[in-house]
Target: Small ribosomal subunit protein uS5
Amino acid sequence: MPRTARTSKLPHNLYATCHRRRNINMADAAPAGGRGGFRGGFGGSRGGRGGPRGRGRGRGRGRGRGKEDQKEWMPVTKLGRLVRDGKIRSLEEIYLFSLPIKEYEIIDFFIGPDLKDEVLKIMPVLKIMPVQKQTRAGQRTRFKAFVAIGDSKGHIGLGVKCIVPVRRGYWGNKIGKPHTVPCKVTGKCGSVTVRLIPAPRGTGIVSAPVPKKLLQMAGIEDCYTSARGSTGTLGNFAKATYAAIAKTYAYLTPDLWKEMPLNKTPYQEFADYLIKNHRPVTGQRPTEAL
Model:
């Protein structure tokens, strides 16, 4: 029978303990201003992460830009110039005339501090599946996600779509502030169909997690929901809910039947102001008067 050498069982963390002590001894022997325990290097003036002159978070060189470092907004559209100069005072004035918003700073100007964002993952959190595409250089992996933004005061946006106004209403008597959708609305995307139904005050939002986040960001407090189709495709589920919320302004209830005077659009009302104060910049230099 072959003889085997006896080996004593050592503690599991013995190597880690010795390695730690060795590092401590080397650190004690190294001078304070050296790099690697000897001469040269960058010296002791450079701090660590989060220190007075370190990297990363904190007061080091890795800190983000503050408000003083942000560039001043210089609008490039007529609508942006009117918003910056205070001629248009709310988003509702823009939606009233269906003016296209081509600058994100316009949204930040009105409801920037109140905006909240939420990432809606396409797949369940416990099972994230990457989407791959075969290219000449190899496989390209991407993860798909939708981002919802809202101010909980009647404005909602999804993904790359624009922010739309949300109309809220009552269930039964008109007491207090609007708390639910004004009527039954339906939105569809792909095979998913979402129906929003008004609910009494105090009911809450009775829905799946994805529509519930969108409705909460839109400022709707009470609502029943009904969904059909492949709701496991959460991207289409979120888009269908967004389409249903956007349709709240499509149905004219009797309180909107009254005739309203047809006002001028902001472009017509402030045409002289735009011509006087905001002339288009041309590439030609003005000729000097002789």
